[in-house]
Amino acid sequence: MDGLLYEILIALGLGLLGSVLFSAIGLISGTDETTTIAPVTLLVVLLGAPPAGVFTFWMCAAVSKHMTHAVPTALLGIPGDTMALPLLQQASALRNLGAPHIALRKMLAGSVISAFIAVPLAVLFAVILAPFGSYITASAPWLFIAASVLIAYFSAGRWASIIALIPFTLLIVALQGFTAGHDVKLGVSYFLGIAVGPLVAELVSAASPLERKRMNRSELRETTLAPDVRGWGGYFPNPFRVLDRSQTRATAAAAAVTSATFVFSPVAMTVIAGEVVGARIKHAYHRLTSVLAVRNGVTESPSTAGALTPLIAFGLPLSPVAAGPAAPLFNAPPRFTVNSETGVVNNLHTMLSVPEFLIWGLVSVVIATAIAYPFAMNHARSAAVFVAKRISHEAIIATFVGLVLVIGLWEGGVLALLVILTVGLVGGLLYRVLGMNTGVQFMGYYAAVLSVPALLKLIG
Amino acid sequence: MTDRTPARAAGTEGQLAEIWGDVVSRPQLGKAILIGAAVSLAVYGIALETIAPLAATPAIGKAVAMLAGIIGCIIGGAICARAFRPKRVVVEEVPTGAMWQTEVLDQLVQEGGPIGKVEDLPASVAGEMKEVGLYDLFRDYERNRARSGEGN
Predict the structure, then answer these.
(1) I want to staple A157 with a disulfide (CB 3.0 to 4.6 A). Which of A122, A334, A429, A434 is the partner?
(2) ipTM tops 0.95
(3) Which of B35, B52, B83 is at the close of a domain?
(4) Which residues constitute the domain of residue B23?
(5) Residue A403: which of B8, B29, B70 has the nearest Cβ?
(6) What digits encode the pLDDT tens for the residues A398-410?
């Protein structure tokens, strides 16, 4: 009994830690969840935390970060996370109208509603899918090819993105071969490279005399902050009152649908869900706020489902989220291992039961909501004023450069840094010139890892 | 033909540029990148030499050093935040109907289609817009558009 109590306390404690830590990290604009959550979760796994603790830590970290990443997105007009990129246009419009706090509240309320819906649905889909495990495992490489083509088509680049997928995937395959020749196997570095690609491309462009003219400015940037309007009493605003009825319905529906589409990149689902909902709303203001609520809600649901469903059903990382931010829940040798040839799995899939996943998943959402949601709701304006007046963009870029260097060196030394620079510059330029967004590039990475070996086997 | 860049901004900040969505000073950005890189690498290196050997396995030791390095990034960022001021002017009051608000609406029309009539909105949404102070703006904008549309 003491052992059980100990495990429960550790799980709650780690959930709390994950929530506080990643609520703070979410405030830093431009961070990528794979780049930040995956390495820290790996650390928790390797330090020997009990299975339930590993799970609550990851869940609380992910859910909290999806809430607080709305703060820089709404108030500063800089995406708080690569996942928040699709929210930028609507958030910037409301910010320029002088109502960034409205954008923020809609995003936060959408996120809470979505997170609570996603957990039970993800568990349900896992239970439904589990009997088809062997079939899905066998067809995973083809699923990833189909998904990456579809997501590329829905990116701004359309056919250009689909064509660009081929050289981009080949680049990753070639880089993997190159590092394998030096006994270095990289994973996080590719994600990091894709995630910071836009920054790498901007920094390199800034050094080019050809691009200098386009980028130079002669004036400081003017940022406006509206007076704060508090539409609620107490510390915990009811999300159902922040959103109007049609927004709640749209958010819940989008959360339910995107929980089922866990094989797709969450960024792509965020874009599509916003387009579908936005097209149905006649008035521009209502359209802006509804799209924000739905899109930020959809940053929660496919992430939660993308990690939970394959973890519970197969124990194999068969979704972009499972291969990305949630990777250490599947594979963290020597403690968690997956053998993709024999199908023998030794990770959270075998260590926790279905009811345990459901209960700890819901507990995590409660913890994250209790910490990140009221913090962002009540202190967003003071946090935004602090960031706008005290944190220069130079400091943010410097932090990122440091982060890239440390994580790169940690994973694979100088070779990893070369990979990050290469993938980042190529990916960043493809994004800017062709409109091939980071979501498509992440799918290109999975295609390189999962689909290319299967294709080569087929060719013989 | 010579390749001329825009005139230098006043003050000690040197040439300004918009990089990654915000305005920075070029010389200060260069220094900030050097500081960020140096501090984070130094903390990571020191942790790798001192704390990492104490861990149970090399993998945990390296992971702890990485965590220390991430704290190093934040320290580097904090140093840069103190050393270099933001290149933003924060305006706290918003005059309704200002020129640039109308420009935002013009942009919305271009990107997302019609603005729509405020009269068609559910009461809850209209109430929210009044609270935020955007109701009149959207109403007047749509009326002006309708009027100029009739004029043509």
Answers:
(1) A434
(2) no
(3) B83
(4) 16-83
(5) B70
(6) 988 998 899 899 8
